[in-house]
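Researcher: Go.
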Amino acid sequence: MMYVSSLGGLPAVAASLESFDLLTLLSPSATEHDWTRLAHARHLQLTFHDITVPTPGLIPPDTETMQAILGFGRDAAPERPMLIHCWAGISRSSAAAYVIACDRNPGFESEMAAELRRRSPSVTPNRLMVQLADDLLGRRGVMVDAIARIGRGEAAFEGTPYQMPLKWPLSDR
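Model: Structure:
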């Protein structure tokens, strides 16, 4: 299972888990945090801005960023949950959860995008991150199209934490 949260919701979600792998996706200007207080087994922090088109003075997600995210997902222990967070828990973290799930479950891209929307009405996965992962995974636009179909999420300053399954198809339906 993956848990997706904003930075503000991170302490409560982390406290509910015994141990987890932590993926932190924040802007380069974000305040330094002491992550050692959280009971994580592994931690990867990537810094880039939440943008979908190149913008002077800002750092976009790139192929190396997405390779690191996919690698983090691939190296995860199956018995340990992943906790993914960004500043608001809406764009970067949701894109990371989606691409990790897509990497593990080819052929379920549309179902996973719809499940993202069902679990969190405010999610708007970063389109550039999804495009880069789609290219890396050779999905020929399937992931991009699935995210486009769910559209922009409801307006929110901060998303409500949610869980996203790592294994598809879902057996609870």
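Model: The longest helix spans residues 92-104.
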